[in-house]
Amino acid sequence: MASDAASSAALEPGEAGSSGAAAPLLLADHQPGRRVLQPDVHHPAPARWTVVRTAAAAALALLGSARALDLSDLDLAVRIWTAPEASRSNQDSPFAPAARLAGLGGERGRGEADLRVRHGGLGAEMSARSTARRGEELRTSGLVNELFYEADLLGQHFTIGKKVASWDVGFGLRPLDVVQQADRRALHPFALEGVPLVTWELFGESWAVTLLYANPLRGRAPAPRDDESVALHYYQRLGSADLHAVGRYSRRTRLQAGASTAVVLGDALELHASSRYQRHGERFAMPASLAGGAPLAASEPRATTASADVLAALLGFTLTPGLGLSVVGEAWLDPAGGTAGEWSALGALAERQRALLGDPAVPSAAVLANLAWELRAFDRPSLLRENLFLRVSWKKDRFEPTADVLYTPADGGFVATAAVAYQGERTRLDGGLRLFGGRAGSAYRLFPESAILYAALQVFF
Amino acid sequence: MSRTVTLALALAVASPASGAAASEVHALLEKADAYRLDPGAARVSVRVEVHKDGELDKERQYLVYWKPGRRSLVLSRSPVERGQKVLMLGDDFWIVLPSSQRPIRITPAQKLLGDASTGDIATMTWAEDYDGAISGEAEVEGVACVRLDLAAQHRGVTYKRIELYLARADARPVQADLYVASEKLAKRATFEMGEIDGRRRVTAMRIADRIQRGRETLIRYLARSPRSLPDEYYNPMFLTRHEPD
Lengths: 461, 245
Description:
Number of helices of chain B: 4
Low-confidence stretches of chain A: 1-52
Low-confidence stretches of chain B: 11-20
Helix content of chain B: 10-25%
Number of helices of chain A: 5
Strand order of the largest sheet of chain B: 6-5-4-3-2-1-13-12-11-10-9-8-7
Structural class of chain B: mainly beta
CATH superfamily of chain A: Porin
Number of strands of chain B: 13
Mean pLDDT of chain A: 82
CATH topology of chain A: Porin
Number of domains of chain A: 1
Shape of chain B: globular
Structural class of chain A: mainly beta
Order of helices and strands of chain B: HHEEEEEEHEEEEEEEH
Mean pLDDT of chain B: 84
CATH class of chain B: Mainly Beta
Strand content of chain A: over 45%
CATH topology of chain B: outer membrane lipoprotein receptor (LolB), chain A
Distance between the termini of chain A: 19 Å
Largest interface: A-B, 71 and 59 residues
Largest sheet of chain B: 13 strands, antiparallel
Oligomer: heterodimer
Strand content of chain B: over 45%
Radius of gyration of chain A: 22 Å
CATH class of chain A: Mainly Beta
Number of domains of chain B: 1
CATH architecture of chain B: Clam
């Protein structure tokens, strides 16, 4: 059925209706805007209640307008999910002592209730989220992921509000998602949060043009996803191929340009490719050494560094030979990833710092804080620039076992996942095991967790 | 209509080498199609029941928009799949997931997945996709039928070959043996008839899996109405932001 095609065709973490179980790397407790370093930093209560109130007001406004107009037109969907996890600590990792401080290790869980509402041109998606760790207080928050109005006028289509904007064709990396990037690597990501935008769109029989103005009047914001930007997307269908071209301008990255394609060849093979170039970019700066050769920093090292002539690219295929079997293979180059040398140097620095633990002359809190700061290096879409990914799934009735592996050839690291999903009438249950490993000194081997056992229950209304 | 159809079928079967002219076969298929769908664009509400060893295993609801020119759009209406859309334009297929701004290309084989494939749900006509010859006569479940051997005329159709049995009396579909590319008999479909708006129509298609025995899928056509979506809805990018009523 359609869902079978969906599960085989799309590895869509963050998009409702899918498990996201194919995502190769977990960064525990990852939340948009929240860094691994800051597990105990709570958002001020007033801000949290503001978003809750906004969500409630939006829901009431939508429901109110639906009642005033015609309730039968209301399209409403609810999804509730919970995902408990238990991890095994990697004591060989020099970062292991700081894992807890960075929100890693132990038993934890996350959950979310999503409400999607459409009424005419009005649309909204709201979510209530919670994160829990054994021995810690439950954290909850509310968020309006999307709230927008779409209007059609004289054959033109306009959107204003907060909405998700993504255009690319790949799974592991999406270079053309220039307005906002989904977290492609988390096991059970929260629903994607849209960006404030205004769009104008035009559709032909086999083409589409979108002009988008995101984060109006924000200029250069602290986080790239909040940057003010203008983007143009062009889509063209050419027989069995889809072509996409994207251009974007923001103060941070200046001009970005990219193109992608997805082609179906024969009955069972789909190929896709995507690339993006930008003259200016930013990437996480690995704190391989500290000023003056001191092993510890007194404050957080600078997190990003400028880079030039940045190219992101992905090449992949989907093979569906029949009997419910599906194979996805991808290779990608992510300029935000580190090099094997950078990871090796970071590992060596962390080893030197870990050796200071127990030294009465050095406060252990300072050592742990430094290690936790460095753990931020794991909080990015791809740990290495070069990545190879293979996923095999088999759909059999209500069950779908999957196995996938992400391999980083530059340092010989890998993440392997085996999982099984069960889909009921209103529920979906996922369970699996993810292992991190590879050559000594590889990024995934440095990760302070060696295995994660997880489950996820989704209920749909 | 039945006398004309009977005469046409008799002439076709009696003709040399059992070969009816392609146009006659096409005309017969159009008549058979009319029991499932009126000519022109339509909206069809569908319920799919999957049975395993006689027990109801799962149930799904779909809304199907169909338009001449091999264009159809399948909207999932069941809670677990709500918001999913599958677009079929000739031999090209996309899936759009809820909360997603991107249509995903899927292969023809992917729309074959499951007990009732998206192709089974969305394809309600044969005349546009198949051609062939009348190859004989047979009695199927007590109904005198003519047998049509049909071959797919397009790459992306769900089944590469069909042996279709139409009632001699009125060309209503009685049974269809559905073969995949490997020439394996994948499914056998039978058709339930009923009276709708004073006309005899197919009310359900029962599909027995011939590879995995004990599985049966019942596709019930709950409501049909003439409805033509604007052409924009058959643009995959448009679907990411619009959903028809």
